[in-house]
Amino acid sequence: MTQIEAAIKGIITKEMEGAATGENRTAEYVRQMVAEGKAVIPNNTGRKARLVAIGAGLRTKVNASIGTSSDIIDVKAEVEKALAAEKAGADTLMELSVGGDLDAIRKEVLAATSLSVGSVPLYQAFKEAIERYHDPNKLTEELLFDVLERQCSDGISFMAVHCGINRLTIERLNRQGYRYGGLVSRGGSYMVGWMLRNNRENPLYEKFDKVVGILKKYDCVLSLGNGLRAGAVHDSLDRAQVQELLINCELAEAGQEMGCQMMCEGPGHLPLDDIEANVKLQKRMSNDAPFYVLGPLTTDIAAGYDHISAAIGAAEAARYGADLICYVTPAEHLALPNRDDVVEGVRAARIAAHAGDMVKLKSGSRDMAMAKARRDLKWDEQQRLGLFGEKAAEIRASRAPEEPDTCTLCGSFCALDNVNAYFRESLRGGGKA
Ligand code: SF4
Questions:
Q1: pLDDT over threshold 80, residue 424
Q2: Burial group, residue 14, by CB count within 10 angstroms (0-12, 13-18, 19+)
Q3: Average pLDDT of 119-132?
Q4: Integer angstrom CA distances of residue 350 from 222, 288, 326, 417
Q5: In this predicted model, what pLDDT tens digit does every residue of 10-68 receive, in sequence order?
Q6: Which H or E run contains 159?
């Protein structure tokens, strides 16, 4: 029985209990959200992983993606990146290798991390078609569904499958005169090429029930891939993107009715003033299915600092209801990320998720505690409360002040130190103590 099937029957599973830990919620709340299709628990019947619930009323989660490219195949480095992402606070991991022995790499990463691991099966399907037939457009349905089954049986807990690309979405793309930024989804672009070359419907759309059947068997979450996401802010919310989103929202509902946990994926690149509309469209059209967004990047001219461009968008998306944020690293658009890029990407996304949750979940109590610790110059307390306490302590220690209570930014001109004494009385009288 899948989590959604159990939830609808009123059963609280051990996965729901595990996922409620760390949330300010009961297991019964998680059950209710899963039953209504408003939350998912990435899971796989064949692999134990750290449990998280993603969805309505729950903390916004952060995903980190790793994986080899065709140019850089260093499995040890990918495992190190997976472990670094976990240590930096990622909630889930996606293994997105396209270079080397993909079955072996996936197994190695799954063995190394305790996080739930996601995948994009189209990468492997097209890679194997190229290896077998020297042409990605010769990919067969048999090979495609075999890859889905293989990845599930290895222990994948959520899978981004590009079911929402169909003839209608391609027609929209043609009618609008293609795009400023082209197609940037690797799986999406190969599938569009396959459909056009073979003049056929997408088998993942046409045989959606077969996709659901495979994932359901393992209780794996079906994350409806965003193959036509905008890869440039000027393509944001264009008709092709919205067409695919609409289809994905329909499929999310259909998949839930078949007993599969479902999630929708989103952009991509969006200017700040399109983010609210995008999140609300997805929520309204899918009856509040969990929304998994990449970034979104809010400008196209910040290469080298795209983790910041994305964190700005992610904070807005989380504020309006996005449930899972895929990090972006400083190497985005430039190179395969290294370990340091991964850590910076996770940290930036965690700040965004927290800033969004302060509005979405009204979860600002830690910030209030930090304000008081700063006011009272309690440095150990500040380190404990901060998202990155060790980093903060390291910077402070590297430039230690003469006055131990202050820091070297203002030194003896410390505003807090100067004025706190005047307000001690009002704090004793029950003020903002
Ligand atoms: S020295 Fe300046 S920056 Fe440092 S704690 Fe005091 S007021 Fe804050």
A1: no
A2: exposed
A3: 96
A4: 24, 23, 10, 31
A5: 999 999 999 999 898 999 999 999 999 999 999 999 999 999 999 999 999 999 999 99
A6: strand 158-161
Cβ of residue 378 lying under 6 Å from some atom of ligand 1:
no
What residues does each domain of the chain span? 3-360, 365-428
Query: Are the C-beta atoms of residues 47 and 110 closer than 8 Å to each other?
Result: yes
Record the tokens describing residue 199, joined without a space.
């003049």
Cis peptide before 296 (omega within 30 of 0): yes
CATH of domain 3-360: 3.20.20.540
Q: Which atom of ligand 1 is nearest to the CA of 401?
A: 1
Q: Which of 206, 200, 207 is nearest to 139 (CA)?
A: 200
Q: Which residue has the tokens 């997805």?
A: 282
63: helix, coil or strand?
strand
Both tokens of 131, joined, read 């290896």
For atom 3 of ligand 1, which residue has the closest CA? 409
- Residue 424 in 3-state DSSP? helix
In angstroms, the first-to-last Cα distance of the chain is 51
- Which residues, in sequence order, are CB contacts of 372 under 8 Å at separation 6+? 432, 433
Does residue 433 carry a pLDDT above 90?
no
What is the structure's pLDDT at 418?
A: 87
Q: How confident is the model at residue 69 (pLDDT cuts 50, 70, 90)?
A: very high
Mutate to test the pocket of ligand 1, among 410, 413, 417, 420 (most ligand atoms within 8 A of CB): 410
104 C-beta closer than 6 A to ligand 1: no
Q: Cα–Cα distance between 133 and 119 in angstroms, integer?
A: 23
Cβ neighbours, 10 Å, residue 111:
10
Rounded-to-integer distance, Cα 363 and Cα 377, Å? 23
